Amino acid sequence: MIAVILAVIPLLLILGDVFLRGAPAISVGFLTHLQKPPNVSGGGIANAIVGTFTMVGIASLISVPIGVLAGIFFSEWSTTKVSTISSFMNDVLTGFPSIVLGLFVFVIIVLPTRQFSAFAGGVALSFVMLPIIARTTGESLKLVPNTLREASMALGIPRWKTIFRIVIGTGKNGLLTGILLAVARATGETAPILLTASTSIYFAKSIFQPTASMTVLIYNYATSPYSSWQTQAWGAALVLILIMLGLNLVVKLTVGRNLSGKLEL
Amino acid sequence: MRFRLLRGDTILTIALAAAALLIIGIVVALAVNLFSGASSSILKFGPRFLIESKWQPSNDVFGALPFVYGTLVTSAIAIVIGFPISLGIAVFISEKLKRHLTFGYLLGTLVDLLAAVPSVIYGLWGVFVLIPLLKDYVEKPLNKSLGFISLFSGHPFGYDFFTAGVILAIMIIPTMSAVTRDVLSVVPNSQREAIYSLGGTDWEVTQKSVLPYARSGIFGAFILGLGRAFGETMAVTMVIGNIPSISSSLFSPGATLSSIIANQFGESSGLFQAALIELGLILFFVAVTINGLARLLLWRMTRGTQVNT
User: Fold this and answer.
1) Residue A261 pLDDT greater than 50, yes or no
2) Is the pLDDT of residue A263 over 50?
3) What DSSP character marks residue A35?
4) What is the fold, at CATH topology level, of the domain defined by B44-302?
5) Which of B101, B98, B102, B115 shows the shortest CA–CA distance to B178?
6) Which class does domain A47-259 fall in?
7) Adjacent-strand bridge partners of B241
8) How many CB atoms lie within 10 A of CB B167?
9) Which H or E run includes B283?
10) Per-residue CA distances from B240 to A10, A154, B255 (Å)
11) Nearest chain A Cα to B185, which residue?
C-alpha cells in the first residue's frame, strides 16, 4: 500500500504542478502567435505546435504501413525463422535509448545534407514508432482465434484476403491502440528531435528546414534564465500533456483493455 | 483462377517479409552508421577511450569514464529506490487486490499513466519543483548529519547525481511494475493453494510461493528497468548539471552518457562530435545486451502461456 502511495504521489504532483503553473500561461495568443524574445509579452508557441504535428505526421506516414505489415508477419508467419529474429530485433529496438536513434538519423541524414530538418526529425520519430506499432499489431492479431482463419480458408478465400478482411477486421482495435500509443510516444519525444530537427523561431517554409517542436521548446525554455520563457515552458507542457494524456486515456478506456500490460514495453 | 490466388498470396508474403527484414536492417544500419560516425574518435583513442577520465573538448582530449560512472551511479540510485516500490505495487495489485479487479485496474492505469508523461516534462518538474524540495528537505539535512560520509559530503546544490537518480526512479517504476504484474499473473494458482492448504497467510503465500516462482521474470523486469534508466536522456540532462566529473559524493554535479550527448551535441564538430557519437555507440551496445538478457529471462518465464512479454 505504501508503495502505491509513493508511486502515485509524484504523478499527482507532476500533473498538479503542470496544470497550476501552465494554466495561467495559456491563452488564444499563446496557441496562435510565434515565439517572442525573452521578457517580451505576448509570445506564443504556434510554430512549435505546427512543427510537432508535422514531424509526427511524417513519422506516421513512414512507420504505420511498415509497422502494420511487420506486425502481420510476426503474427501470421510466427513459425518462420525470419519472424523470430525480426521480432526479437523489434523488441531490442523498442528498448533503445531514443537519443541513439537521434544520433543514427543525424549520421545518415543531417550530416550528408548539412541541414537540420523536419524530415530528419520525422524519420527519427518513425524509428521510435515503428517497433511499438509492429509489436502491438503482432500481439493483437495473435489474439484472433485460429478457428476464424480456418473457417475463412475452408470457404476457399485466399490467405491475403483472409488476413485483411477477417484477421485484421477482428483485431483492428488492438491495431488502432498501437498506432495511437505510438503517436503519443512520438509527440512526447525530445532527444531524437533535438539532434535532427534542431529548432527555429519561425514557421518552417518546407520540411527541409530546421523546425521547432513543443518538446525542444520546453527543454530550451526551462533551462533558460528568463522568467517569461519559464512560464511559457509550463504552458507548453500543459498543452503537450493534455494531448498525451488524452490519447492514452482514450486508448485505456476504450480499446486497450484486453491488451493492457503488454503495451508498456 | 489458381494463378490469381497464388499471386495475391505471393505479393503479400513478400511485402510482409520485406517489412520484417527492414526492422533487422534498421538495427544493423544503426550499428554500422554509429561506427562510421565515431570512426575518427575510435581510431584516435582506441580502447583507452573507455578508461580515460578527462573530457576536454578544447584540448581534443576525450574519455568516457566520467559518463559511464555517472550513468552507473544514477541508475543505481534509481534501482535502489524504484525496485522495492515497483515490486510492492505489483504484489499489491495482483495479489492483494485479486478480488477487487476494477480498483486494481484503475490503480494500474494510474501507475501506467506515469509512463505516458514525456521525459522533458519530468525534467521541467525536476528543475522547478523537485530540486528545491530535495535540496532543502533531503540533501541539506543529510549533509549536516551524515556529511562525514563521503557519499553525503560537499555542498548540496540540487543539480546532482542524487536528484537525477530520484527522477529516474519515478520514471522506471511504471515499466518495472507493469512487467512484474504480468509475470505474477502467470504464476499458477496451484502454487498459491499449496501454501494456503498448509495454513499459510496471504503474506506467506506471496513470500514463500509466488515470489520464488516468479523469480526469473522479476529479474527480467529489474533488468528492463535498469535499461530504461541507462538510456533516459532529457530529464537527467536537465537536473544533473552536466559536468564531466567523477565524485564520490551524491551531492555533486555530474553527467551521464546520454545527458552529455544531449547537452553538448549542438555545439560540437569534428573529433568532438565523433567522440559524442562514440558515447552513443557505448549506449547502443549496453542497450542491446540489457534488452537481449531481459527478453530471454521473460521469455523463459512466460513461455507456453497466454501472456507474451
Assistant:
1) no
2) no
3) P
4) MetI-like fold (1.10.3720)
5) B115
6) mainly alpha
7) B254
8) 28
9) helix B270-302
10) 19, 62, 6
11) A261
Q: Domain map of chain B by residue range?
A: 44-302
pTM: 0.89
The closest of A190, A84, A71 to A142, measured between CA atoms, is A71
Q: Is residue B6 very low, low, confident or very high in pLDDT (cuts 50, 70, 90)?
A: low
Q: Where are the beta strands (DSSP E) in A10-138?
A: none
Is there a contact between A71 and B27 (Cβ–Cβ < 8 Å)?
no
Substitution target in B4, B14, B23 with the highest count of A β-carbons within 10 Å is B23
| Residue A88 Cα distances to A68, B126, B252, angstroms | 16, 35, 39
Q: Do A100 and B287 touch (CB under 8 A)?
A: yes
Residue B60, phi-psi category: left (phi > 0), alpha (psi -120 to 50), beta (remainder)? left
Domain ranges of chain A: 47-259
Report the C-alpha gap between B263 and A68 in whole angstroms.
35
- How far is residue A189's CA from residue A174's CA, in Å, rounded to a whole number? 23
Taking alpha carbons only, the member of B17, B284, B156 closest to residue A78 is B17
Q: Is B56 helix (H, G, I), strand (E, B) or coil?
A: strand
Rounded Cα–Cα distance for residues A214 and A233 (Å): 9
Phi, psi of B56 (to 5 degrees): -130, 90
pLDDT of residue B172: 92
Residue B58 DSSP label: G
Please give the pLDDT value at position B36: 93
Contact (CB<8Å) A159/B9 = yes
Q: Give the whole-angstrom CA distance, residue A179 versus residue A137.
A: 9
Answer whether B151's CB lies under 8 Å from B192's CB.
no
With CA atoms as reference, report the closest residue to B115 among B169, B171, B75.
B171
Q: Cα angle at A121 between B274 and A229, to 5 degrees? A: 95
Count the neighbouring beta carbons within 10 Å of the beta carbon of residue B205. Answer: 19
Residue A250 vs residues A180, B62, B281: alpha-carbon distances, Å: 9, 47, 37
| C-alpha cell belonging to residue B218 | 522479476
Residues of A in contact with B105 (CB under 8 A): 260
Interface confidence, given as ipTM, is 0.88
- Cβ contact B117–A215 (<8 Å): no
Check if A101 contacts B (Cβ < 8 Å): yes
Q: How far apart are CA A35 and CA A203, in angstroms?
A: 10
Q: Is A120:A106 a contact under the CB 8 Å cutoff?
A: yes
Inform me whether the C-beta atom of residue A252 falls under 8 Å from chain B C-beta atoms.
yes
Choose from A8, A12, A14 for mutation: most chain B CBs within 10 A.
A14
Cite the beta strand spans of chain A per DSSP E. none
A 77-96 → B contacts, CB under 8 A: 77, 82-83, 85-96
**Average pLDDT in chain A:** 87
**Interior angle at CA A63, CA A57 and CA A67, nearest 5:** 145
